[in-house]
Amino acid sequence: MTAVDARPETTTELRFPAGFRWGTATAAYQIEGAATEDGRTPSIWDTFCRTPGKVRNGDSGDIAADHYHRMREDVALMKQLGVTDYRFSVAWPRVQPTGRGPAVQKGLDFYRRLTDELLGAGIRPVATLYHWDLPQELEDAGGWPQRETADRFGDYARIMADALGDRVATWTTLNEPWCAAFLGYGSGVHAPGRTSASASLRAAHHFNLAHGLAAQVLHGALPSTSEISLTLNLHAVRPLTGSEADVDAARRIDAVGNRIFLDPVFHGRIPQDLVRDTAAVTDWAFVQDGDLEVVSTPIDSLGINYYSPTVVGAGSSTSPSPWAGAEEHVRFLPAPGPRTAMDWPVDADGLYELLTRLRDDLPGVPLVITENGAAYDDYADPSGEVHDPERVEYLRAHLSAVHRAIGAGADVRGYFLWSLLDNFEWAYGYSKRFGVVHVDFATQRRTFKDSARWYGDVIARGGLTG
Ligand code: IFM
After folding, report:
1. N or C end of the chain: which has fewer CB within 10 A?
2. What is the mean pLDDT of residues 382-390?
3. How far apart are CA 448 and CA 438, in angstroms?
4. pLDDT grade, residue 416 (50/70/90)?
């Protein structure tokens, strides 16, 4: 499955291995809406959206893309696209409202209907347990810096395994715990909006622990053929120059951005350089005996979310910074080249660098691109068409990088485009559009953008023209 077809149809045809998984991805709070229906209670994002000044325009996920009510229509769109897999997340406060105790049947039923609909359409469901919507009651009890939250996550994993284990074969414990820990508890630009470096490091460890506890629960409850995974937004870190100081700045960001998760999960250890870098912030006493054995419970694959590279040099950054222990040593520099509407540089080489690094660092661990995509200022023209040539070029470049990495020996099994639909882009509200399907939020009308047709064609051909 890892070997690339060495006999391309034409000299410029980049064909992916047989069985490659072609998907799209979404997350519950970004698309579902129905925020108060069927027993769902507020998550930290509902609260954050209601805090003045936190989210652009005061937007919230109350209605979002109304997917809770339009799920069948959305699955039909995926079927039309031809995706083999769909990655969605479960809203914890929809299925276990206070984060404790029994599940709410109506919440579980929604995900049962969704997965049945997907299976009926011939699409494999890929369930993510946590994409940032912590039940508010658990945050009130201390949130992720509090160890007990990890235990509650293990209980919730059990509820979901029992409810969907007969129909979902691929499970992801957490999505981007770096963002949840460091943007949520460090820089405060994400929910719950706290700004404490030590809280962010505690949260990161408890995310690792929660992942390990959930992986143990899932292994015990699911058939042995199930795939259990974790998704990280790994940073493709580049030093500005080869100077010792710049290289050390890159090392610091690699430690607190990447190895803080990779080392405990895959090697059962905390990076010692990270412990030194953060000594002024914490003594790491929150890591208890036995934790690392739990955290390093074997998993079946690693999900990678990649958007753009990170260029750093020696210097300092503004406070509050998400980079615990690094803010006085590292400055962030703009990478050259074109930018997306997020002002993120378009640089597909960063994805190639990440994948070949993981090929070397984690031999034997299958890799899946669980998110990649771009926001642009898309709009429907007078004929109702949505032309998004920049997104097509972004996707083409990144898929080519994935193909190149597979050719160089990276064991990449699939690619999930972020995102199926335009949606609620966190602190940016509805001002950024990542979908290949345009959503008119006033009418909830869905329209395929040109990129959706292009992606559908790539899937149908099992590759693209390089
Ligand atoms: O929209 C987000 C998603 O929720 C997590 N990964 C990055 C995307 C784009 O910012």
Report:
1. N
2. 98
3. 6
4. very high
Q: What are the tens digits of pLDDT across the range 54-79?
A: 999 999 999 999 999 999 999 999 99
176 lines ligand 1 (CB under 6 A): yes
Q: How many helices (H) and strands (E) does the chain have?
A: 17, 15
Please give the full DSSP string across 425-462, using - where no structure is assigned.
Answer: -GGGGGG----SEEEETTTTEEEEBHHHHHHHHHHHHT
Beta strand pairing call for 301-305 and 227-232: parallel
For the cut 80, the answer to whether the pLDDT of residue 1 exceeds it is: no
Establish whether 244 is a catalytic residue. no
Q: Report the residue among 305, 394, 436 best suited for mutation to probe ligand 1: largest number of ligand atoms under 8 A from its CB.
A: 305
**Annotated active-site residue in 176, 227, 327, 390:** 176
Under a CB-based contact definition with an 8 Å cutoff, are residues 60 and 49 in contact?
Answer: yes
Q: Is the CB of 425 under 6 A from ligand 1?
A: yes
Cα–Cα dist 25/373, whole Å: 10
Give yes or no for residue 305 CB within 6 A of ligand 1: yes
Q: Is the confidence at residue 188, as pLDDT, over 50?
A: yes
Nearest to 81 by CA among 464, 397, 341, 451: 451
The CA 70 to ligand 1 mean position distance, Å, reads 21
> Measured from the CB, is residue 64 less than 6 Å from ligand 1?
no
Residue of the CA atom closest to atom 5 of ligand 1: 176
Positive or negative CA dihedral for 238, 241, 245, 247? positive
Residue nearest ligand 1's atom 10 by CA:
425
Phi and psi of 63, rounded to 5°? -110, -40
C-beta of 418 in contact with ligand 1 (< 6 A): yes
Cβ-Cβ contacts under 8 Å for 456 (sequence gap 6 or more): 80, 81, 82
pLDDT tens figures, 332-384: 998 888 999 999 999 999 999 999 999 999 999 999 999 999 999 999 999 99
The domains found in the chain, sorted by start residue, are 13-460 (3.20.20.80)
Pair 370, 87: CB distance under 8 Å: yes
Looking from the CA of residue 27, the nearest atom of ligand 1 is 4
Ligand 1 atom nearest residue 419's Cα: 1
- 27 ligand 1 Cβ < 6 A: yes
197: pLDDT strictly greater than 90: yes
pLDDT of residue 6: 47
Lowest-confidence pick of 6-10, 71-75, 106-110, 372-376: 6-10
- Distance of alpha carbon 241 from alpha carbon 20, whole angstroms: 37
